[in-house]
Amino acid sequence: MNKIFSSLLLACALTASMSAFAQDQMKQDDTKKDTSNSMQNDQMKNDQMKNDQILAQISEFCRNADMAESTFGRRAVNDGKLTHHTVALVESANLPPPADWVLANSQVAINHVALTMPNREAWQKQLAFLQSKGVKFNWRVNHGVTHSVYINDPNGYGVEFLYEMPREMWENDIDGGINWLENLPNEGPEALIDRTDTPSFGQTAAAE
Q1: Residue 181 and residue 148: Cα distance in Å, rounded?
Q2: pTM for this prediction
Q3: Pairing of strands 181-184, 158-164
Q4: Both 116 and 179 in a single domain?
């Protein structure tokens, strides 16, 4: 009986010891987790503070420089009455300078995106706005289906601003309309001139 009793006491002691060790280990793990979470939270707070400071500096710069509009004429800074923000700028630092933009075989994954203006007047205002901001016109061209200007952003990605020609001018010969082009000056007042006598395509000549 004494041996059995002693064995039970030993088993209880070992169990209690192991339980205490496990609880202590769990407390240490919880402490480590709390410390790690605290460090992560502190880092996130610091990163957020840096981001907020950067955004505040951008906003202040835009206001001081009277640049409430971005290059594309959209509001880059607003007062929150319409939406919380309009344009989000996320910078990738230490990028190499972009190569000169070209229409084909460029060094960027997306050569250009095309933005259609609602009408000719809006397009002309956009061209005047871009030129007033010193944006380089890479290519000023009239296609048979659109009148266009090509520019690029600071990272080398191309942007085409265009307005559509009336559908009846090209719908009977889309291929002819797309492949017709007229190169125009890309600097000075001449780059803002827009002729309206673009030819039509696929139309049968009127009988005499």
Answers
A1: 10
A2: 0.55
A3: unpaired
A4: yes
Name, in order, each residue with C-beta under 8 angstroms of 87's C-beta and a sequence gap of 6 or more: 70, 74, 75, 76
The answer to whether 137 and 186 have CB atoms below 8 angstroms apart is yes
Largest CA distance in the chain: 130
Residue 22's contacts (CB-CB under 8 Å, 6 or more residues apart) are none
Question: Is residue 7 domain-resident?
Answer: no
Q: What is the CATH number of the domain that holds 181?
A: 3.10.180.10
Identify whether residues 121 and 182 lie together within a single domain: yes
Q: What is the 3-state secondary structure (H, E, C) of 53-74?
A: HHHHHHHHHHHHCCCCECCCCC
- 104 pLDDT more than 50: yes
| CA separation for the pair 143, 136 (Å, rounded) | 20
Q: Which two tokens stand for residue 139?
A: 């290519």
